[in-house]
Amino acid sequence: MPREAGRGRALRPFLRRPCAARTLRMQNPGPDLAPLVAAVHALRPDLAGAEVKPLLAGWDSVAVEVAGRVIFKFPRHAEAAQRLRREAAVLRLIRPRLTLAVPDMRLHEAPMLCSEHEKLPGDHLDAAGYAALPEPARARLAADMARLFAELHALDPAVLRGAGAGPVDPWRDATAIRARALPLLSEPLRARAERVLADFARLPPDPCGEVWGYFDGHGWNMAFDHGCGRLNGVYDFADAGFGPLHRKFVPPGLVSADLAARVVADYARLTGRAVDVRRAALLGGCHRLSELADCADDPALVPMLTGFFADWAAEA
């Protein structure tokens, strides 16, 4: 069984896509915003009267945007509170050491636990937005992402562990994915998935070992300036941790297989590490199948997730 396999909390970057937002809100509605707004006003009286815009209410946290420029994030349960504290500690450590901007996050314990940071200027980058980019912008984006990954991997692991960093969440293994996900696919996609899972099950441990990194570097965590064609920063480090290096290149593939291949090539040139673009692409397909397996019992999400695997199969 490959090192990437296992069972744990789903990464769920797909479910942060704008097209999935309405479904997720209906599944898991946010709490009454009144106590959250009261907490914001207690912490920042200067923002009283400013517009409060609720953002996506996910499994871990509820976020609000205030005055169009400040983000407050409130954990929904004890595990989310632990993740939020770890994210704030890690960001304090890594932010001065990165070229690319990440949130300058401040943690508040009272009147209720939450984080606060200035919104990074920019918007999400999806497949259509990437396809519209000219060649120089695509090259610059890949170079920026590769440099971010290289700078993160150069950090002292012991210092990161001291800040609370731990392992990334594992995926389901090939057997569990096959049992839950494949019955939901059409016959052609099922045959493709069988080949993917067979290759996945034969993978040896990652030849590049484990690194601490940002395993959520997809376009829905980017602050991208579409006017200038430039990446201003990235955010959401709650799922950062130690994991197999090749898994790092799965999230850029959610935007485009072309972007993922470029990031792999630029990263290899920067670091001298022998990164295998084929292994990274295979993990991309396995990740989408693992997400489908996690949500196999949810008829509202299954069509979207089967479509994501179909998209990967067409690109790969």
Briefly, what is this?
The chain has 316 residues and is of the alpha+beta class. It folds into two domains: 19-118, Phosphorylase Kinase, domain 1; 123-315, Aminoglycoside phosphotransferase (APH), C-terminal lobe (Aminoglycoside 3'-phosphotransferase, Chain: A, domain 2, Alpha-Beta Complex). Helix content is 45%, strand content 14%.
Question: Would you mind describing this structure in some detail?
Answer:
The protein is of the alpha+beta class and 316 residues long. The chain folds into 2 domains: 100 residues, Phosphorylase Kinase, domain 1 (2-Layer Sandwich); 193 residues, Aminoglycoside 3'-phosphotransferase, Chain: A, domain 2, CATH 3.90.1200.10. Helix content is 45%, strand content 14%. The protein has 12 helices and 9 strands. It has a 5-stranded antiparallel beta sheet. Helix 5 crosses helix 10 and helix 8 packs across helix 11. The N terminus is likely disordered.
Detail the topology: elements first, then pairings:
Elements (H helix, E strand, L loop, with lengths): L20 H7 L6 H10 L8 E6 L3 E6 L3 E6 L2 H17 L11 E3 L5 E5 L8 H5 L3 H19 L3 H6 L11 H8 L5 H16 L7 E4 L8 E4 L4 E5 L6 E4 L5 H6 L1 H15 L5 H18 L7 H14 L1
Antiparallel strand pairs: 1-2, 2-3, 3-5, 4-5, 6-9, 7-8
Helix pairs in contact: 5-10, 7-8, 7-11, 8-11, 11-12
Instruction: Output the radius of gyration.
Output: 19 Å
Number of strands: 9
Low-pLDDT windows of residues: 1-30
CATH class annotation of the largest domain: Alpha Beta
Order of helices and strands: HHEEEHEEHHHHHEEEEHHHH
- In CATH terms, the superfamily of the largest domain is Aminoglycoside phosphotransferase (APH), C-terminal lobe
The figure for the number of domains is: 2
Q: What do we call the CATH topology of the largest domain?
A: Aminoglycoside 3'-phosphotransferase, Chain: A, domain 2
Q: How large is the count of helical segments?
A: 12
Task: State the end-to-end CA separation.
Answer: 23 Å
**CATH architectural name of the largest domain:** Alpha-Beta Complex
The rough form would be described as globular
Strand content: 5-15%
Helix content: 40-55%
Main sheet summary: 5 strands, antiparallel
- Average pLDDT metric: 88
User: SS-based structural class?
Assistant: alpha+beta
Q: Kindly report the spatial arrangement of strands forming the biggest sheet.
A: 1-2-3-5-4
